[in-house]
Specification:
14 helices, elongated, alpha+beta, 462 residues, six-stranded antiparallel sheet, 11 strands, Beta-Lactamase, Nucleotidyltransferase, domain 5
Length: 462
Amino acid sequence: MKLGLRLRVFLFFAALAVGTALVMGLALWVGARKAQAGGNGYAIASVIAGFGVTGLIAGIWLLFDENVAKPIERLATDLRARAEAGIRGALDEHALRYLGDLAPAAQALNQRTLHVADAIATATGQLEAEKKQLCDLLSEMPVATIMVSADHRIVLYDRQATALLRTIAQPCLGASIFDYFDGRALRRVVAGEASAEAFDLTDRAGHVHRDVRLRRLGEAGGYILTLDAVEETGETIAARALTFDFGLMDTTPVKAEAETALVDLTFTVFDTETTGLDPERDALIQIGAVRIVRGRLIDGETFDELIDPGRPIPPVSTNVHGITDAMVGGAPKAEEVCERFKTFSRDSVLVAHNAPFDWRFLNRVTPMGRRVVLDTVLISAILYGTTDQHSLDALCERLHVNIPEEERHTGLGDALATARVLEAAIPMLKARGICTLGELQAESGKFGRLLKTVADSEAETV
């Protein structure tokens, strides 16, 4: 027979009442026997009653917490994940088995939500197909195109611009155009002090680009730069035919301050692979990172570099991340890669899973300065409570983030998985009233003790 939630709650209280009566009866009986023997029966009865009732209440509370309170909290968080973050998949029926009709009702609501999501996904897919056709068409143009906002931040770049900018530094939405090109010459053209037609522009790598053209965007502010494309070599970048966020045209640059909304921030989500677990003795062998701009993971804006540690990689470490001595042979040194990562992550909030571990390795090689660093372990604790599992694998399973087995324990693979977790967590945090960076930092501070626990458990896994 399947019991309803109200009946189960009643049975908890009934068990508490019956158990209390039995404990009190036992206490009085023992006390009476002790009194008849000439002892202090009242004291004995009080001790038995006190400890007995306390133990009974603790036991009933543990049962209630494990079978009712925790499943209700998990159900609320899972529903919020589906409502706010678009997480798909069925609810865990086994975990909700003692909640009576609440579990089937939640499943029915989840199924209805999935039907609506499928309809939206179909319409979105059609729009994406049309956008891809447009992007493919624009990418066939024989020039590199970069759209820049009125405050000189990159808003759009095409495939040809990706190839061109990568000869200078990794292209990033929201980055200043002056991080890539000489600011003095460009400012003169923007201000109208020099011709916007066929001017020369020197980039930060020292290359001179001839016949550059600038077109102003009228009332919207900003401008479009067109440059001769460079020949693409090696790695394909066709998947990034057009990268853009027009919302950057209407916003001012934000800083990582307490009052800044999470959805307005730029995050660099990173992960490191190392020769071992001791930041004082072991060395970096890989850094992987991706970027989230205004709540959206930007495809193609990645950092993925191997590092020559200058020492053999222990076989036990290779068994985890798959990186061998042969793979890092000829790779750049840690100082060079860390400096490039520092540039890639500039003006952003850093995020990692069990961040203190990765941060200590980075900071020992190259001082990273005063940076805001967030940890998805603590974000998990905010969303799911301290009693749940907070490993990256557990978080990905909970939020339906798929990590291909061959990418697990690689710098870029784990960084991408962590970014997907953060991307889903931001709207879930907002639904809980945690909307700004300061609010998230304050809430995270309550769970700092979890980091050592998670670090120890993941070390045992390694």
